[in-house]
Amino acid sequence: MTYVLLSVAFLAAALVVAAFAIARRGGWSLVRRGAAPVALATLALFVLTAIFDNVLIALGVMVYADDATSGIRIVLAPIEDFAYPLAAVILLPAVWVLLRPGGGAADDGD
Q1: Structure confidence by residue, pLDDT tens digits, 36-58
Q2: Is the pTM of this model over 0.90?
Q3: What is the 3-state secondary structure (H, E, C) of the chain?
Q4: Partner of 77 for a Cys bridge, out of 6, 48, 53, 66, CB 3.0 to 4.6 A?
């Protein structure tokens, strides 16, 4: 299995849970309210991933087989590594919304 396929699987799973959360708990207003914080978290996680992945790869802690990656890299880090923080930033708010008490959308007072 390549890292690309593994990344797609993680992203697909996160998107399925997010779609379920949107459909079940608040529709697109939920997405509009959460867009800015999720975008900021995504940016922060991408910057941290770029820094720490490159450090770990440079130190030899992590090694990637060239034939298992797409070949696209940000310095030393394969682009596939950025799918995991993206999946996390999609999945975590979706799970949070689904685990909230009550059956409807979150009220604006929280």
Answers
A1: 988 999 999 999 999 999 999 99
A2: no
A3: CCHHHHHHHHHHHHHHHHHHHHHHHCHHHHHHHHHHHHHHHHHHHHHHHHHHHHHHHHCCCCCCCHHHCCCCEECCEEHHHHHHHHHHHHHHHHHHHHHCCCCCCCCCCC
A4: 53
